[in-house]
Amino acid sequence: MRVLAGDIGGTKTAVAIAEVGPRSLSFARTRRYPSAAWAGLAEILEDFLADERQLPRAAAFGVAGPVLDGRAKVTKLPWLLDERALSARLRIGRVRLINDFVAAALAVPRLSTRRTALIVPGRREPGGPIGVIGAGTGLGQAVLVASGRDWIGVASEGGHVDFGPRDDREDGLVRFVRERFGRVDRDRLLSGEGLGHIYDFVKSQRGRRDAPAVARAFAEEDRAAAISRFALSGRDRLCREALEIFVSIYGSEAGNLAIQYRATGGIFLAGGIAPKILPALRAGLFQTSFRSKPPLEGLLARIPVRVVLDPDVGLVGAAVEAYRTVIDTTR
Questions:
Q1: Looking at the DSSP assignment, which residues form a beta bridge with residue 18?
Q2: Helices (H), the chain
Q3: CA 131: distance to chain centroid?
Q4: pLDDT score of 66
């Protein structure tokens, strides 16, 4: 079945024509657009579909933001999306909007192990709930629950839950960030922006300035990318300490998600940051933080954690959802 899929983010929007079957999925054509350069999603889709001779049977779009009654506001864009309006404008009968991490979760059953990297060993329980969490522009979460032979994706805005510090250092981090922004949620720390806040906190605690090379990098590129690069290379102590704190918090929050949903089907890290800091995630600190939750260490010791390496995971999940909108009406 030929469907239209989209992964709608504050920075970029990826769209694709996909051929989907019960166990197969391939992309016939994909394209990425800079989101802020376009007035809205409809304009992007009209441009993308201009060369299509036959319209797809259905469409689905993963949106970085909550979806209510077929409508969504992209969190970091002035876009208002509506299923009915998109359906009418594109002349596609079935259009679905879903949260972007629900899309990532729906892709998990179709991911091969080659498209993931194991960072915490364990044994998945067949049919057990699957948790998906990911730091990127923000912090996303979702869970996948088995329903017969299919899966149901459950949306979450857990990234905006209050952050709970675990020790004196994190108490200090929360005070530091609260002075800047007021309320401190998980998204404020587990994101690209959050890694920058953690670095600033470490710098203030150490009473040091940016190293000259780091300062130059900050002026020329994304701060989170620069911090990660200097940390992984071992070239800067402040960057290394900031990334260690980030990884520890990431592991703890992944463990929280596993406990909340008893995610015995495994935890998957999606989002743009995890693949880029894979050596740090494998170093042991993430696993320690993930499992250190008495009295539930035994449960967490059985749950594996994998990093999703496929950059098109959101498109895969959206294509699956588009396919299901047709199949569900023909059963």
A1: 3, 27
A2: 41-49, 83-90, 100-107, 168-181, 192-206, 212-220, 223-233, 237-261, 278-281, 285-291, 297-301, 313-330
A3: 11
A4: 87
pTM of the model: 0.92
**Fold of domain 2-107+312-330:** Nucleotidyltransferase; domain 5 (3.30.420)
- Residue ranges of the domains in the chain? 2-107+312-330, 113-308
Secondary element (H or E) of residue 302:
none
Contact 116, 327 (CB under 8 A): no
DSSP code string of 186-252: GGGTSSHHHHHHHHHHHHHHHT-PPPHHHHHHHHHS-HHHHHHHHHHHT--HHHHHHHHHHHHHHHH
pLDDT, tens digit (0-9, with 9 covering 90-100), for 91-100: 999 999 999 9
DSSP-derived secondary structure for 149-163? TEEEEEEE-GGGSBP
C-alpha torsion sign, points 122, 249, 228, 202: negative
Give the Cα separation of 25 and 308 in Å (integer): 17
Task: Share the mean pLDDT of the chain.
Answer: 94
What is the CATH code for 113-308? 3.40.367.20
Task: Dig out the tokens for 247 from the structure.
Answer: 């990884």
